[in-house]
Every structure is written in structure tokens, then in C-alpha cells.
Write a structure and sequence with these properties.
By secondary structure, this protein is an alpha/beta fold. Helix content is about 50%, strand content about 15%. An eight-stranded mixed β-sheet has the order 3-2-1-4-5-6-7-8, with helices on both faces. Helix 1 crosses helix 2, helix 1 crosses helix 3 and helix 10 crosses helix 11. Bound molecules: nicotinamide-adenine-dinucleotide. The site of nicotinamide-adenine-dinucleotide (NAD) has 27 residues, from helix 1, helix 5 and strand 6.
């Protein structure tokens, strides 16, 4: 199964990163979002990131230019689906929206196209259930920031074929990632462990700990490269909250998001993407 053309749905932090690494590896990429503003933001993110890599000498200036030339932006779902061999969904972490979107994607996609979700925590089989191609459906859980993180979880749904799994594993390696297989339960491996850690950190803030002390403790005493409050700001508080909700639904109340986490999401304190979380990113 030859993958040449990549379609990406959702041009937020993750979709933009996936577009960047795919184009840099030589794939033709079409990326779609609902609004032109989202696409403008995505273009800016990708250009800045590639310029940074070129500035540090990690890629050639010509690699940057050819990667940028391989990415096409659109607001039309049909356009992103029609020629794609692999379609990766990276829209909001909401099962209903993902279901609605995959029903439409399936109608536009080539019969042989592989459909993938970059969901952080929703079981792949559940997302795939609205399509009639479970054997061609898979989870590709990229990590944030996509251009820097080496790992990538590959998740088989109940019906995912070996051919689909193999093609996606090869794709992951071809874009410079080191894939790891994770079992299809809410949160997989990475979100299951990290969401709980970040939720617990929020609880500790409620109890009176300062975010900078929690981060310092985990960085200096536990060797974590980034403390859980900084990590929550990077991931986005709403992503962790939805992850906890999915796990609470499947594994029990012990996984419920802390009320302060919910309150912070409602207040728009999502982290880097809104400029404010535990830390201020507006300056
Ligand atoms: N942020 C992370 O650290 C992280 C890591 C791994 C996986 N994920 C997962 O990736 C997905 C995207 O997360 P993100 O952080 O990039 O979110 P984001 O909010 O930065 O981007 C989501 C984008 O999807 C677009 N969108 C929403 N509905 C759409 C639709 N119907 N059609 C087309 N575009 C649509 C939005 O306009 C937005 O630009 C989520 O499922 C999330 O759980 C996030």
C-alpha cells in the first residue's frame, strides 16, 4: 500500500505539526480547517517552525522551501479527501464532532484510503464505528510538539487490518518517528498516565501548592523534563479534561477531572493556545 498523499483535517497545533513533518519527509499534504483564519494561523506556525530548524542548521533552507511548497491549505473537506492515501483527523477532542466528520470523510475518500484519528484518549474502535471501513481505520497519536517529539502511538482498532497497521507503521518511520504500539483503551498509554498526573497537579494547586513549586519539584526531584503544570499549558487544559472524562466514563469515577480543571477550561485558561494557563504567554 503506497502512501504518497496525506490529507489532514484540523489545522490547530497538532494538525499543523503533522502537516509540517509529513511535507518535510516528501509527502504531498493538503490540510483543511473550517475557517480561513485557522489556516492562516497554521501557515504561520509551520513557516516559523521550519525557519527555526533552518536557522539552527538542522535542515537546509531549500528543504524548508520545498516542504512549504508541498502543503496546500483548504476549507473544503472534499478537497482534502479526494486524492489522499492517508487521512489524519486532528479536530476538537469531541466524539460527536469526530463522528460527524468521519461520516463525511468516508463519503469523499477513495475506497482504498486509510482513515486515522489523532485523538488523545477516545477509543479508536468507537470513533471508527460510524464508518464502514474498520479494517482501514487506525489511531495515530502524535505527540506535542510534533516536529520535536520522537514517539508516536499507533493504535489498532478492533477491525484494523495488518496491512493498514503495517502501512501506518512504515509511514511513521518515514517521517522520522519511532512508533510504539498501544492497546485501544481510553487514553492508550501516554494520555492515560499523563492526564492523571496533570489532573493531580491541578488538585495540588487547589490545596495551596504553587504551580512553579510543583514543576520545580517534578523537574529537579523526579527528573521530568517538564513539570505537570507546564505540560498542561503545553497540551491544553481542555485536552486533558476531555481525556479524564473519557477515562472516567470507561474506568470509573476515580478518573473524573478535578472541578478546578473544569473551571479553568470554562474560563479559557487553556495554556499556550489561549496565551494564559498556569503561566502567562502573552508577554
Ligand atoms: N494538544 C496536544 O498536546 C495533543 C496531543 C496529541 C493529540 N491531540 C489531539 O489532537 C486533536 C487536536 O488537538 P489540538 O491541540 O491540535 O487542538 P486545536 O484546538 O489546536 O486545533 C483543533 C482544530 O480543529 C479545527 N476543527 C474543529 N472542528 C473541525 C471540523 N469539523 N473540521 C475541520 N476542522 C475542525 C479547529 O478549527 C481547530 O483549528 C484532538 O483530538 C486532541 O485530543 C492533542
Amino acid at each position: 500500500m503506497a502512501i504518497k498523499n496525506i490529507g489532514i483535517i484540523g489545522a490547530g497545533i497538532m494538525g499543523s505539526g503533522i502537516a509540517q513533518v509529513s511535507a518535510l519527509a516528501g509527502y504531498q499534504v493538503v490540510i483543511q480547517d473550517i475557517t480561513g483564519e485557522a489556516l492562516d494561523r497554521s501557515k504561520e506556525i509551520i513557516e516559523k517552525s521550519l525557519a527555526k530548524f533552518a536557522g539552527k542548521g538542522k535542515i537546509q533552507e531549500s528543504d524548508k522551501d520545498s516542504a512549504l511548497g508541498r502543503i496546500h491549505y483548504t476549507t473544503q473537506l472534499e478537497e482534502v479527501c479526494k486524492d489522499a492515501d492517508l487521512i489524519i483527523e486532528a479536530i476538537f477532542e469531541n466524539l460527536e464532532i469526530k463522528h460527524e466528520t468521519f461520516k463525511k470523510i468516508e463519503a469523499f475518500a477513495k475506497p482504498e484510503a486509510i482513515l486515522a484519528s489523532n485523538t488523545s484518549a477516545l477509543p479508536i474502535t468507537e470513533i471508527a464505528s460510524v464508518t464502514s471501513r474498520g479494517e482501514k481505520f487506525i489511531g495515530l497519536h502524535f505527540m506535542n510538539p510534533v516536529p520535536l517529539m520522537k514517539g508516536l502511538e499507533v493504535i489498532r482498532g478492533q477491525l484494523t487490518s495488518d496491512e493498514t497497521f503495517g502501512a501506518c507503521w512504515d509511514f511513521a518511520e518515514s517521517i522520522g518517528k519511532n512508533p510504539v504500539e498501544a492497546v485501544d483503551f481510553a487514553g492508550f498509554i501516554v494520555s492515560r498516565l499523563l492526564d492523571v498526573l496533570m489532573n493531580e497537579a491541578v488538585k495540588m494547586v487547589q490545596e495551596g501548592n504553587r504551580p512553579e513549586d510543583i514543576d520545580k519539584a517534578m523537574e529537579l526531584c523526579a527528573g521530568h523534563p517538564m513539570g505537570p503544570c507546564k505540560l498542561l499549558d503545553l497540551v491544553g487544559a481542555e485536552i486533558a479534561m476531555h481525556g479524564m472524562e473519557t477515562m472516567a466514563r470507561d474506568f470509573g469515577d476515580g478518573y473524573k477531572p478535578h472541578p478546578l480543571l473544569k473551571k479553568r477550561v470554562l474560563a479559557g485558561l487553556l495554556g499556550r493556545k489561549t496565551g494564559r494557563g498556569f503561566y502567562d504567554y502573552t508577554k
